[in-house]
Design goal:
By secondary structure, this protein is an alpha/beta fold. The chain is 30% helix and 23% strand. The strands form four sheets. It has a seven-stranded mixed beta sheet with strand order 6-5-4-3-2-1-16, covered by helices on one side. The two termini are 22 Å apart.
Length: 319
């Protein structure tokens, strides 16, 4: 599989384009989040250029708008062209865990029906996406650990982490925070996938760092919450050697003061990670260098780099 992490458009750093990361080969595409209609259009254009792809799998990591706003637009295209594609949606189906949520809440005033209504109200964007997928007769699959998505696998969150997030959302409202992340973010769906060069990538959306387990198992790690410094530092500390990893930052969150994102990460002088690819500076494609022919390198996007212009693979580039 190859990875393409989409960026913002026309140097627009003010619009919150959000996340959209593609994993693909000649026949299969995994769309991990689609946070803006322009990202949806970019995926459509990608499918038109890669006409041999006929399996499209959409993963919605969590309920935030900057991860969901382009999904229905993408679904509209896939439905119109349904003869060309088999489409599946992978998302957290919150209503499946109502019993466990009620047990955790331990409140006799609550019942299953009212709890279901609370869940649908709080996780409204995923509700809309699931209903649209069902209307279009797409397969809708609960994103549980161990579930395969083509050649990728869901690795988080654990069920108790997920149930805890839902219970806190119901109890205190969606502004409740878990380790600094809102409940919307904390239990983002995490997936791992092996790329063409054998490296294993972890995509984790806006997951709480404590919900990211065994990070040393991965060669490439998406830093959660668009590369926010506090989250990134926790990940670095959990690693035996952060300098051996490549970090993906999907930062299309806009330049506003409260947009979050990677500005503080890039300014940090004590950062342990040296190899970072950031979509704020353009589309990121991995593996960066996949084939060597003679003295020249051919990138994953097919661009030939003469040997006298090589940067040593990933090197220490901070993009």
């Amino acid at each position: 599989m190859k990875l393409k992490a989409l960026s913002h458009y026309n140097n627009d750093l003010d619009t919150r384009f959000g996340d959209c990361i593609l994993l693909y080969d000649s026949k299969r595409l995994i769309v991990y989040d689609c946070g803006h209609e322009k990202h949806a259009q970019a995926v459509v254009d990608f499918l038109k250029r890669h006409s041999t792809i006929n399996y499209v799998n959409v993963v919605v990591s969590h309920n935030d708008s900057d991860h969901t706003d382009g999904v229905v637009t993408l679904f509209d295209y896939l439905y119109i062209n349904r003869s060309n594609y088999t489409t599946k949606l992978y998302s957290s189906l919150y209503l499946k865990d109502v019993k466990e949520v009620l047990e955790l809440l331990d409140d006799d005033r609550r019942n299953p029906d009212s709890t279901k209504q609370n869940i649908l109200k709080i996780f409204d964007k995923i509700k809309l996406i699931v209903e649209k997928a069902q209307e279009y007769n797409f397969s809708v699959i609960n994103a549980e650990i161990g579930t395969s998505i083509e050649s990728a696998t869901i690795v988080g969150p654990k069920k108790d982490e997920f149930v805890n997030v839902v219970a806190q959302a119901i109890k205190d409202g969606n502004t409740t925070k878990i380790e600094g992340e809102t409940v919307m973010n904390a239990a983002s769906i995490q997936i791992k996938c092996k790329l063409n060069n054998g490296q294993i990538v972890l995509l984790c959306g806006d997951a709480s760092p404590s919900y990211i387990h065994k990070p040393d198992n991965y060669d490439i790690i998406q830093l959660p919450h668009h590369g926010q410094l506090a989250d990134a530092e926790i990940i670095f500390e959990k690693l035996d050697n952060a300098g051996n990893k490549l970090f993906l930052v999907s930062d299309n969150t806009g330049s506003g003061e409260k947009s979050g994102g990677s500005d503080n990460l890039e300014k940090s002088h004590d950062r342990k990670a040296k190899r970072i690819k950031n979509t704020k500076n353009g589309i990121v494609e991995l593996p960066e260098v996949s084939i060597y022919e003679g003295g020249d390198s051919i990138t994953a996007s097919g661009i030939i780099i003469p040997s006298n212009q090589k940067t040593g693979g990933y090197g220490c580039d901070i993009l």
